[in-house]
Amino acid sequence: MKAYIFNKLLFNAYYTAVAVLALTFAFSVVQAEPMRLTIKARPGLQYDLFRFEAKPNAFVEINLVNEDDMAHNLVITKPGQRLNVANAALSLGVEGDAKNWVPDLDSVLFSTPVLKPDSSYLLKFKAPETPGVYPYVCTFPGHGLLMYGAMYVDMPLPDLVNDMNLPELARRGNLTQKQLHAWGIKRPLMYRIFMPNASPASVAVALRHGQNYCWDAAQCRLRYLWYGDFVDPWPVWRGNGNGLAKVLGTKYWEAGSSGAVQIGNKDSQAHFLGYKKIDGQPEFHYRINNVDIYELITPLHSVIGIQRAFRIPNNKQLVSLPVGSVSQVIFNYSAGKLMDGVLTLNAEEAAAFSVSIGLKQ
Amino acid sequence: MKNTKYFLASVLSFIAVIGLRAVGISDYYSIDNISMPKGLDSQVGGLDFMPDGRLVACFHRGEVYTYHPQKNEWKLFADGLQEPLGICAINDREVVVMQRPELTKITDLNGDGEADHYQAVFDDFGMTGNYHEFAFGPAKDSIGNFYIGMNLASNGASIRPELRGEFRHYGLSRENFKSKNYKSSSGRMYAATPYRGWVLKISKKGKVTPFAPGFRSPNGLGFDLKDQLFVTDNQGDWLGTSKLYHVQHGHFYGHPASLTWTDDWQVGRNPLEVSVKELDAKRTRAAVLFPQGLMANSPTQPIPDSTEGKFGPFSGQLLVGEMNRPRIVRVILDKVAGEIQGACVPFYDNAGLSKGNHRFVFGDDGSLWVGQTHLSWAGGQGLQRIRWNGKTPLDVRSMELLPNGFKITFTKSLEKSTSIAEQFQFKRYYYEYRKAYGSPQYGIEKIKIIGSKRMNDNKTVMVYLDKVNPGFVYQLDIKKLIAEDNSALVNPLVCYTLNRMPNGDDKAPHLVRN
Predict the structure, then answer these.
(1) Which of A188, A191, B217, B380 supports an S-S bond with B356, CB 3.0-4.6 Å?
(2) Which of A:278-297 have CB within 8 Å of B?
(3) What is the pLDDT of residues A322-346, one digit of tens each?
(4) Strands A281-288 and A337-339: what pairing?
(5) Chain A residues inside the 8 Å CB shell of B375
(6) Residue B7, number of CB atoms within 10 A of its CB
(7) Given pLDDT bands bounded at 50, 70 and 90, which one contains residue A174?
(8) What structural domains does chain A harbor?
(9) How do beta strands A35-42 and A59-66 pair?
(10) pLDDT tens sequence across B340-376
(11) Which is it for the CA torsion B150, B260, A217, A290, positive or negative?
């Protein structure tokens, strides 16, 4: 699979080179034939083609195909404007959907609508006259940090490994995760596996929108969050387990010693009881002080981040949740009182509440 | 015609010599390779059948698949498990899996063939994060209680910064485990959390009983048809050679690291420093020893032939997997003075069988399904199916200890002119019970046959020996043996573990060096 992808990359590069050559040749004969290419949106917040070359003023047709299980678009921006455009898209808020998450900015050059899974769109445009590296990016909320590429207009292509206009994965020449299972790549995905900075009974979960978390089944608490690629389990799986899974992507929150629910006043050991899969995502079930707790972690929709939804249905006691360091993230809670880093809820509030942790951009 | 046959036989023997195909077992059994889902790491951790006839298997990277043998169709049932090494089907929608951190009941609630609910049945045991802390089982008794085996940690690695469960070590603090020379005090294999080195019982209602300590690497738990629990263990420290134990509640099986988690163990007392004599007096010896290099180096699951004859003439006997070579071993039990001991004999060698024979289950049709693994040690991967073709091989069917020799019964009548004294050779040896890794064979000695007798059925022979004593493996090599129907003996090697004489004498002080 890895070899296949790599070949595919080579093929794409080859295809681009041939297309450019053909285009040059075509220009000298007839002018109108556009440069055609296909870019696929792939699972794991990636475009399958991460860079291509275009001549100044060339006619380009990009067939954007969404092969992922969530929505994506493609926006071409002025050089160096990728993050500005992606952040402006985020701040569209409720207006976002209507605008296809494309902000009204001069730095936006061309854009597709938001494509649902298994749909495609033909984007036609004339390449800019000014030489430069023009980013293309998915501005759907939460995607722009990872899902992008670059159009080179009359600019030399640097070596792949040194091309800082590309996502890290692309620089590694490895656009997608290794295929480690018969089903290929999918999200949500969950592994019980040895994880760094957590107990030996840990759970790693890949949610949609490139969100990932580590939850500790020995201590029944969330340990840390990261976005981007999931984990490389190979250090564990290649042998007999004498290794830790490697966290890929970017870590943005760690619980430290916090994150465990407390019932009543006394500290009590949590007992892990298992989980139910809801839309492929585990809802953990554990017991503290003889009180059942259910916790479902889902991705936030408009920013990078997650929501922890708790249900504590048969409880008469005060519930507290030390939320840990939240100054570096956007922290929200649906009920209770937050004081000195501890969220406190009465039994009624605690029957169903949620907290969310989002990346500050 | 005869010449051709002879030529063919020579070719086949030649091939056998270079190790590709042995003559013998393939005349009676055939083997198929089962095609596996593409992209799956097919190292098998557990095998069982659901009542509706689907095979269910768990794999190294945490998947559980069902397989429809008629349709040759795999379907994902569950995933995300941590090194599952055993599976037990409860019904068509539910399995219980032993994975590293937990015994887990996995249920398909909505009946779409894919599990949605994972219930932690039992996870109240410790984990240091050491790679060697595998969890084995579950074996189910006739009432529905589960038995699991907890591997010791290996000093091939230390413990990790975070643990699950209580930490207790006789020689090292948690801090000391970080030092470079932790190995000098940790023990070759160690039990720094509960209940490493134990077999545990989890009752149908969920009550947990620490059942028996003394194990090192119990990668194989199984009940025979008489509801007796058997557990294999691997050669290493405190195990002179690999073993099969008949496991009973409260007995101690020889590896001392686990003793630290017994109720009455004096905290801080180092079990590795208890005198070997004291440990020897405390331990229950293995029912069967598998001589290292000869019979098995890493035995796996014991499974009784429950096919009532559909799998050949060994109904009721245990088969045991072997990792290091393409072999399945057969065990011939003998109850002597109330205790179980017995012999082992190769059952299936080469002839298309892979290495790494790890997990087994019998199908309704009497075929034996074999799942392989390696976990980066010697072994293999994939799934095979062995079928009997209805012809009876000439093989040892039973072996019983007499006060002065053995009574050996074959699967069919022997050719009348066979001379037992000429064709049978006995020797004996023993393995020391000691802290060091493995034991050489000591006291190797040829044992003279002083007499023999054939019974009228021509299947049973009595062999009388000049020395019969407890605490030895009696190895029988049969040079040439032909049945009345002219077929040759398939497996000429039999190793009988003599713990106890018919009069109950089991004294064997030579097993411990002074």
Answers:
(1) B380
(2) 282
(3) 998 788 899 999 999 999 999 999 9
(4) unpaired
(5) 239-241
(6) 10
(7) low
(8) 2-171 (2.60.40.420), 189-359 (no CATH)
(9) parallel
(10) 999 999 999 999 999 999 999 999 999 999 999 999 8
(11) positive
Do B47 and B57 form a contact (C-beta atoms < 8 A)? yes
Q: Which two tokens stand for residue B70?
A: 């008629």
Closest by CA position to B389, among listed B362, B366, B407: B366
pLDDT at A5 over 90: no
The residue among B146 and A32 whose pLDDT is bigger is B146
**Chain A, 78-97: which have a CB under 8 Å from a chain B CB?**
none
Contact, B342 vs B288, CB < 8 A? yes
pLDDT of residue B23: 53
| Residue A29 scores a pLDDT above 50 | no
- Which residues does chain A have within 8 Å of residue B376's beta carbon, measured at their own beta carbons? 238-240
Tell whether A4 is within 8 A of chain B (Cβ).
no
B415-474 confidence digits (pLDDT tens): 988 888 899 999 999 999 999 999 999 999 999 999 999 998 999 999 999 999 999 999
Best B77, B95, B154, B164 member to test A by mutation, with max A CBs in 10 Å, is B164
A68 Cα to chain B: minimum distance (Å): 20
Note whether A83 and A132 are within 8 A (CB). no
Q: Could you tell me the CA-to-CA distances from A343 to A130, A260, A285, A339, B49 in Å, in that order? A: 54, 11, 20, 6, 49
Quick check: B118 and A276 CB within 8 A? yes
pLDDT higher than 90, residue B224? yes
Contact B153, B144 (CB under 8 A): no
Interchain proximity A273–B131, CB inside 8 Å? no
The distance of A60 to chain B (nearest Cα, Å) reads 38
Q: Do B128 and A179 touch (CB under 8 A)?
A: no
Tell me whether 0.85 is exceeded by the ipTM: yes
Structure tokens at A243: 């290794």
- Using an 8 Å CB-CB cutoff, list chain B residues near A197: 162
Inter-chain CB proximity A218 and B101 less than 8 Å = yes
Residue of B nearest to A287 (CA): B120
Partners of A221 on chain B (C-beta within 8 Å) are none
pLDDT over 80 at A16, yes or no: no
A161: exposed, middle or buried (C-beta count within 10 Å: 0-12, 13-18, 19+)?
exposed
> Do the chains contact at B128 and A180, CB–CB below 8 Å?
no
pLDDT at B10 over 80: no
**CB contact set of B161 (below 8 Å; sequence gap of 6+):** none
CB contact under 8 A, A200 and B127: yes
Residues B282 and B337: beta-carbon distance below 8 Å:
no
Tell me: the pLDDT tens digits for A189-215?
Answer: 999 999 999 999 999 999 988 899 999
Q: For residues A218 and B164, is the Cβ–Cβ distance under 8 A?
A: yes
Closest CB to A182 among B37, B102, B127: B37
Lowest mean pLDDT segment, chosen from A26-40, B77-91, B357-371:
A26-40
How many angstroms separate the CA atoms of A72 and A69, rounded?
9
Say if A124 is an interface residue toward chain B (CB within 8 Å): no
Give pLDDT, residue A3: 42
